Amino acid sequence: xxxxxxxxxxxxxxxxxxxxxxxxxxxxxxxxxxxxxxxxxxxxxxxxxxxxxxxxxxxxxxxxxxxxxxxxxxxxxxxxxxxxxxxxxxxxxxxxxxxxxxxxxxxxxxxxxxxxxxxxxxxxxxxxxxxxxxxxxxxxxxxxxxxxxxxxxxxxxxxxxxxxxxxxxxxxxxxxxxxxxxxxxxxxxxxxxxxxxxxxxxxxxxxxxxxxxxxxxxxxxxxxxxxxxxxxxxxxxxxxxxxxxxxxxxxxxxxxxxxxxxxxxxxxxxxxxxxxxxxxxxxxxxxxxxxxxxxxxxxxxxxxxxxxxxxxxxxxxxxxxxxxxxxxxxxxxxxxxxxxxxxxxxxxxxxxxxxxxxxxxxxxxxxxxxxxxxxxxxxxxxxxxxxxxxxxxxxxxxxxxxxxxxxxxxxxxxxxxxxxxxx
Length: 423
What we know:
Elements: E1 6-14, H1 21-30, E2 35-37, E3 50-52, H2 77-80, H3 85-101, H4 105-108, E4 113-118, H5 123-136, H6 153-161, E5 168-171, H7 177-190, E6 196-203, H8 207-210, H9 225-228, E7 244-252, H10 253-259, E8 265-274, H11 287-300, E9 309-311, H12 318-332, E10 340-342, H13 345-348, H14 355-369, E11 389-390, E12 401-408, E13 412-419
Parallel strand pairs: 4-5, 4-6, 9-10, 9-12, 10-11
Antiparallel strand pairs: 1-7, 1-8, 2-3, 6-7, 8-13, 12-13
Helix pairs in contact: 3-6, 7-14, 11-12
């Protein structure tokens, strides 16, 4: 059980459904998705036609001098040249998060503040740099080519740019990456090693970050944006890719009291487990996710009956959704009418390394604002979902205890348990 209390005190969003809290909450409440036809997929040789795009940014060029981003954000040129496209998203999300948490510079840059990040790197920039090296010569690669493109690019740039002096680490467990980052960040505070931690997840949002999954037959080939991402629907045929960034701040109880801030919610536990089954396919019975959920509940000292809502990992793949449903039924029972279960990836698409912290952020908003997001785009529910309380519409009900699930390649599973703050 968590012995030292940990609270979410700041959030920043750059997502397909909004680039600030207000627009994200509106999209979650009204089930507005961020998916659209993507011009770069308008090719008869490309079976995928849609992408959950990030709006308001133009970071498609391989030259950072061409990039544009919304007014109100400040990124110095010497920082920008070392960023990936999703690094720009993350920088803006960090600025939002810092302002939201009302941090001053001394709170950010000190040995008691750390940052954990998760991303897959930038396939577009990495390909560009390697091609340039092979065509023009080794010494024609820019000095920042590596730090802007490889998997650690977020933590490299953010800890340097924001002068983070405490813990610094990048996590790579595919779609569970930022879930692991969040879980281990919680442990940093529980252990007393840190007083506050930033957790940032980000991914590019372009052809190179998306289409490799088509070769796995993992992406939806639906051309209608309203039908492409439909977790738990009987006719689902794969996920819709997305990118963006989300930044979250968690703090100890003492820091919350010292700074006089009102937290979104408390993180009361987390759990992880591996399937040990297949490099890319979930265990058919959801064995690892079942154990992750049970461990999260045990960590928080709660019985399954205490959970009001589960934000499911559910990506809209035929195998993965069934695996998760089976795990949920074994942990929480069948036909109880609780907990409610929904998949916000129906709106956002699947953010890969970003998805865990993004969805934990959605849960924090739902707890604070008193609603349970609906599971959109379901026409005919998968028979495997019988007995599970999947809410297709957003509910005007305040969840007190929420579980957020994530699963990644190799059978990595993470469950984060959150609770409303009383008073």
